[in-house]
Amino acid sequence: MATDQQNDFDKKVYYETFDEAVERNRPRIAEVRKQLEDAGVKYVMSTWIDLHGIPKTKPVPMSDFEELCIGKGPQFAVHSISFVPELSPADSDQVMVPDLDAVYVCPWDNSMAVIFADLYWEDAPYNVCPRQALKRAMHEAQENGYVGYAGVEPEFIVMKYDEDGLPVKAFDDDPAHGLRPRRQAFGYDVEYTIDSMPYLKDLIDILEDMGWNLHDVVAEGAYSQFELDFHYTNLLEMSDRLTFLRIVLKEVAKEHGMFVTFMPKPTVGDWRSGAHINLSLQHRDQPGENVFKDDKGWSEASRHAVGGLMAHAEAITALTCPTVNSYNGLVPRVGGFEGGTVTWAPTNITYGFNNRSAQFRLPQSRYCIENRAADMTMNVYLAMAMTLTCALDGIKNQIDPGKPTDFDLYSMSEDQLKEAGIRRLPRTLFNAIEALREDDLAKHVMGPVMQNSYIEYKNDEWERYHQAVTDWEVKEYLRLF
Fold first, then answer.
1. If DSSP codes are grouped into helix, strand and coil, which group holds residue 270?
2. Element (H or E) spanning 289, and its range?
3. What is the Rg, in whole angstroms, of the alpha carbon atoms belonging to the chain?
4. Which range (30-34, 79-83, 300-304, 360-364) has the least confidence?
5. pTM over 0.85
6. In 31-111, at which residue ranges do the beta strands (DSSP E only) sit?
7. Is residue 226 assigned to a domain?
8. Above 90 in pLDDT, residue 387?
9. Among residues 50, 79, 317, 471, which is most buried (max CB within 10 A)?
10. How far lies 364's CA from each of 158, 353, 368, 402, 452, in Å?
11. What is the arithmetic mean of pLDDT over 32-36?
């Protein structure tokens, strides 16, 4: 029952004090409570977002709904559980205020509802609240005359545990051991799609009932890998939807004795699971008019927006591809794919018209800028905030992205790419985090405290990764030297 905010989003204000947030809720409490009770809801999970984009909550009964909405519900010592080192055990707790425009009845159990919330600390927006960072970026965009919209293309792999307790692909009809002959590729295959429909039908019905305007479900390149395509909306609602979708996908899978992983690259031979971000802009005072389109096609503003995204691409990638494993997927070729060795993943910071080997694609079917270097492990709120701000920075400063690269980047040598002035995407999480550290616009978007917390945790993640001895290293070096 999340509201459609596309027509009146410019009228809403999302950068506010604790008291302002409470007063924004107060006139709507009775209305929303009745809607929830009519839907059968008995338990409310007011849900905040941690540094990694993972939702957290404490359930409350409907009898406490009004208290919850005016900021007198559960409090949290966020700094004790969410990798935020700046506060100590002696500091105040964080208080959440639910956003009554972000209410989702749980489709697998309508006695529960998730309401996305914002965190406040000592009456001010908490400076390590990713949802608040996105709201601030959206408010700044509106102040400059723009409203951002996005669609996301989430990909994921459905798995189960075998009789030995080992994780295996859920939709894979060959035995785990023994002969595994070459077979039809999973992508788009009718037989495998039919085999997957008991799970997919539940998802389709849920998303249709929620009014997300689902376009299609795709059997993707890796076995048991799927993509969902649904309609775009404003950046905040899309971020909430993607976060709620991750919950839905997992809960429905459990009902079928399976589980979902958003890990971008679970095995060497798999296609990467991505989550391409498709950004478009509208003028605040001209709703419905796409800034990226003019009477000749792609507008000059679209070029400058691409320029801004390219100028900050490494820092953006630290947010959209935030794990060590993310960078295993940002490679041009891998042996063992069904259908060739080319990954279709972006590896270079450039743009092209419908060029899927570039980081930024200008699609032939819609006027939006698609960032292909993003996956489902991202904190979508931070990713959207950074994407919007960088695009607007490009428009404001008329940043020239150069000529489009409308050719196969995978076939170019390192020398040819260098000669063309094309930068390589970060090859590791460490490279990306170092770029994020040096990016002043990222510091503005995240704020220095959240930027520091994020970098500190990701540096720790990188160091812990390098303390592990992998199977590859053992096979490569154990008897070689």
1. coil
2. strand 286-290
3. 23
4. 79-83
5. yes
6. 43-49, 55-61, 75-76, 94-105
7. yes
8. yes
9. 317
10. 30, 7, 10, 19, 39
11. 98
Q: Phi and psi dihedrals of 323, rounded to 5? A: -120, 160
Q: By mean pLDDT, which of 18-32, 324-338, 440-454 is the weakest?
A: 324-338
**What gap in Å lies between CA 169 and CA 155, rounded to an integer?**
15
How far is residue 14 from each of residues 65, 117, 309, 352, 393, measured CA to CA in Å? Answer: 21, 12, 24, 34, 21
> Do residue 119 and residue 164 come from a single domain?
no
* Residue 217 near residue 227, CB atoms below 8 Å: yes
The predicted model gives 458-480 an average pLDDT of 95
Task: Note whether 69 and 119 are same-domain residues.
Answer: yes
Q: For position 148, what pLDDT does the model report?
A: 98
Q: Is 25 helix (H, G, I), strand (E, B) or coil?
A: helix
Count of beta carbons in the 10 Å neighbourhood of residue 61? 10
DSSP 223-266: TTEEEEEE--EEHHHHHHHHHHHHHHHHHHHHHTT-EEE--S-S
Residues 466 and 368 grouped into a single domain: yes
Is 3 inside a domain boundary? Answer: no
Q: How far apart are CA 124 and CA 19, in angstroms?
A: 9
Q: What confidence tens digit (pLDDT) does each residue in 223-239 have? A: 999 999 999 999 999 99
Residue 91 DSSP class: S
Among residues 80, 98, 126, the one where a domain terminates is 126
Answer for the pair 134, 384: CB distance below 8 angstroms, yes or no.
yes
33 pLDDT band, cuts 50/70/90, is very high
Domain count, the chain: 2
**Run of H or E residues at 424:** strand 423-424
CATH of the domain at 267: 3.30.590.10
Within 62-198, strands assigned E span 75-76, 94-105, 112-121, 124-125, 146-161, 167-169
Strands 358-362 and 348-353 turn out to be: parallel
Residue 88 in domain = yes
Q: Which tokens go with 439?
A: 């990016």
Domain that holds residue 86: 9-126
> Residue 447 region, left (φ>0) first, then alpha (ψ -120 to 50), else beta?
left
CB-neighbour burial class of residue 239 (10 A; exposed 0-12, middle 13-18, buried 19+): buried
Q: Do residues 319 and 384 both lie within one domain? A: yes
Q: Which long-range contacts (CB under 8 A, 24 or more apart) does 444-452 make?
A: 444/389, 445/133, 445/137, 445/382, 445/385, 445/386, 445/389, 446/133, 446/382, 446/385, 446/386, 447/127, 447/133, 449/86, 449/127, 449/128, 450/51, 450/127, 450/128, 450/130, 450/133, 452/86
141 lies in some domain? no
Domain identity same for 122 and 150:
no
